[in-house]
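Internal QA ticket QA-208
Title: Verify multi-chain structure generation after dependency bump
Assignee: T.L.

Test input:
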Amino acid sequence: MLGLTRKDTTILLIVTVLALGAPFLLNPFPISSPLAQFNAGYPDLMQRFVIFGIFAIGFNILFGLTGYLSFGHAAFLGVGSYAGVWMFKLLGMNVIPAILASMIVAGLFSVLIGYISLRRSGIYFSILTLAFAQMSFSLAYSVLTPITGGETGLQLSLNDPRILGQSVTPDGNIPVPSLFGLEMGENTRLVISNWVFTFNVGYYFCAVILILAFYLSIRIFRSPFGLMLRAIKTNQTRLNYTGLNPKPYTLAAFVISGMYAGLAGGLMVAMDPLAGAERMFWTASGEVVLMAILGGAGTLIGPILGAGFIKYMENIVSKINETILHNWFAFLPDGLEDIVVSMVYPFIGKGWHLTLGILFMLVVIFLPGGLVEGGQRIGRIFRRKKKKETGDGSGATTVNPAE
Amino acid sequence: MSKKITRRGVLAVTAGAGAALAMPTIFDGSVWADGHSGFTNAPQGDTVTLGFNVPQTGPYADEGADELRAYELAVEHLNGGGDGGMMSTFSSKKLQGNGILGKKVEYVTGDTQTKSDAARASAKSMIEKDGAVMVTGGSSSGVAVAVQALCQEAGIIFMAGLTHSNDTTGKDKRANGFRHFFNSYMSGAALAPVLAANYGTDRKAYHLTADYNWGYTTEEAVRSSTEAMGWETVNAVKTPLASTDFSSYIAPVLNSGADVLVLNHYGGNMVNSLTNAVQFGLRDKSINNKNFEIIVPLYSRLMAKGAGANVKGIFGSTNWHWSLQDEGSKAFVKSFGTKYGFPPSQAAHTCYVQAMLYADAVERAGSFNPCAVVEALEGFEFDGMGNGPTLYRAEDHQCFKDVLVVKGKENPDSEFDLLEIVEVTPAEKVTYAADHPQFAGGQLGTCNPGA
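Actual output:
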């Protein structure tokens, strides 16, 4: 289907179902139960899952295929965001021109940085990209304050021209981002007894783009171009000896992945029209590396899982505070309750980084292929059982290792 | 379609995806509006949820922790616990200790990380997931401005925490946002007369300014008010926010002919730059036959603690200090001290007051509707909250009240007793026109009640 193999179609279908059904899948607990704390099905977080999923998919095209580890990808996300907000300020609140501008500007920026950084490989490449990203951050934070809004971030104001739209809504507020009049922030709620499911226009817009971006990345992975990128990762010297110049290929991969980052940045401001300089900080670049590795670098679906995992930790685990912990362990005797709470406390709330760090270490040590490898291992256990039961191995599909 | 995908599987998947896609279109939004009565997150049942968005990690984590303590205390008092704190001294007597409009106050907390993106994500989850009807807190102007804009979009009231930049109620003001804390202009206006009285009117000042929004507005404010009384500004140098060693910025000061150094730094920046400056022996120098002086426009007790003995004798301004002897301050210090064992910081004070003012405004408006609350707060005059008679000005949602000029204490009695109050500058001395050039360029807009 759509020029994909059977296996890839299945993956695409899985991603489609996950993306479109997220409002249900992420809200498994009824609102009155104490477990509702773990529900992640509210628009802002779902949007983040999808947007960082796109970011990670793009990063994976560079890192997973060519093996070039960029430590400055957040710069493209940030540049895309600024371009998007400027479109909102100058043109109007339609998200399409904003997102296109984000991708184009991020693309151009990545041509520039890629052209220079790709003269080196390995650790030198990583350091060069890191340096460029930090430079962009510092510029955005102070020197370029008139363009970027500095520390406060670039935001819309009532005085913006918006030549294709309106500067001020009739009721005196700043207009909100919309897709030809369909507001991104619009919600429809579905209440089924104790469950509340929120369907957000912005989320579905992002989800559709995620599916398209994911499809494109499958096509890139399976194309001769993708094969070439993998050849670069495997042995660049040998590629040189065969008379092929790998430069144009790596630069193309770099720009494509930069444009993915720009797309993610554009979507971020389409959901929330403010661009802060922090999203270009080196920790943000490091985060996408973590996402790719945690999920499984070089696999198709891995980066999306990694992105979802990290954003879940950041937004859900970080919000559990001491009071909530005391509620959970209220059934224990008083002294014991305090002990248990004080033992768990360092790992939740503001300690979520610690939990994430431990999980990351465990994954890297025991599942070098990331969460995807974990899934495959579980899948293999079940398949082996099935084989024994039927006593017929020929019907079972062969297990393909992670790319 | 390849044959390995079974007919059944495809049917199931398509049905699921189709249902998910169709759902938002089948059900009309209004049918499922679940009792929203005209504004975002109208409280249902017998509780109301407030969102406390404070820095729990990052450079201002100490202040964030103190803010959270103050909020917890405020919630306790609103729900009728503790000794009631400032509720007994507050000039408005609407609060009864039975929650807000009879609804028990509950709260959710979040971490701003002192980053505008993270702060907005945290505030959004409070609004979308937890149903918070008001968001408050924060310890930096960048965060305050970002969250304020978000609350305006979402139709939520934002009660700013510690934010000192002019922009919060200047160029970036919003109808749904309110600031109790003072600002850069007020610091400049309050400091200038005290500086003139102590250091004379023919000084040459050298500014070191943190290279971000708050630094700029503070530098501008202090410059214009000191130049107005006859000082000369020799030079103003911007320092990167991430710097920890300021020696390379301090050395040129000595050769510049300046005899006053103004440190437009806050938090860790100020602790480091002041320590560097004192270690360089600046304060023992005599230039132009005048003793070299250092000024820190915005002081906080937590900063004074960090800089230790270096703050002795250094002037600055602050919003509130626990050693104030009015009834409101005494009541607050007492109940905070009883609960936590030490006096509150100015961040804690402003946050506590903001929570109380919000609750009171809802009581007086008789509704949680943001537009009703805005109306109740605009032009509201009150007293008994530690700063003397105070006005919430309608034009820019800024509080006008007395500003404290403080000095690092020479002989502190305890680790909390680091600042002494030099002068209480009355509110009318620091009041400015709503269209003052330092605050120009923004529009309040109209209140947004959201969905």
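Spot checks passed. The two ends of chain A are 21 Å apart (CA to CA).
Status: verified.
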